[in-house]
Amino acid sequence: MVVPAVEAELRARPGLASVLLCGIETQACILSTALDLLERGLDVHVVVDACSSRSQVDRLVALGRLRQSGAFLTTSESLILQLLRDAAHPRFRQVQQLIKEPAPDSGLLGLLGGPGVLPGEQ
């Protein structure tokens, strides 16, 4: 769902290579937006624990399709740490305090059958 306002932002950033997505209705908004961005040649990173749907089935099927389509699936903690790069970052200690406590269960692992398993994967 690359609407005109998003299209304008993309044109304003000709060197843009990657996009991070999170939001609601994974099976609609996130999926459509990701597919549009992938079609434009961008790397799309979907923050799975920051995406929701009205039903867990819709969410899981959409995440599977996103992965099959070439989107990178990640978690918020992993993404934050990748953006910092390493412990030498001046704000590493601050961020470490924010992610120190384990996040509440997002419901993904139990429904996925374990770590790293999405629908259709063996």
Description:
Residues 13-77 form the Isochorismatase-like domain. This is Isochorismatase domain-containing protein 2. By secondary structure, the protein is α/β, with parallel strands linked by helices. It has a domain at 4-75 and 107-112: 3-Layer(aba) Sandwich (Rossmann fold). The protein contains 6 helices and 3 strands; from the N terminus they run H-E-H-E-H-E-H-H-H. It has helices at residues 4-12, 26-39, 56-69, 76-84, 92-99, 108-112; strands at residues 18-23, 43-51, 72-74. A 3-stranded parallel sheet has the order 1-2-3. Helix 2 (26-39) runs parallel beside helix 3. The longest helix has 14 residues, at 26-39. It starts with a helix and ends in a 10-residue tail after the last helix.
Give the helix/strand layout:
Elements: H1 4-12, E1 18-23, H2 26-39, E2 43-51, H3 56-69, E3 72-74, H4 76-84, H5 92-99, H6 108-112
Parallel strand pairs: 1-2, 2-3
Helix pairs in contact: 2-3
Domain Isochorismatase-like: 13-77
Family: Belongs to the isochorismatase family.
Protein name: Isochorismatase domain-containing protein 2
Oligomer: single chain
Give the N-to-C terminal Cα separation: 31 Å
Element order, helices and strands?
A: HEHEHEHHH
CATH-assigned homologous superfamily of the domain at 4-75 and 107-112: Isochorismatase-like
How many strands appear in the DSSP assignment?
3
Q: Mean pLDDT, as a whole number?
A: 83
Q: Round the Cα radius of gyration to an integer and report it.
A: 16 Å
User: Which fold name is given in CATH as the topology of the domain at 4-75 and 107-112?
Assistant: Rossmann fold
The gross shape turns out to be: globular
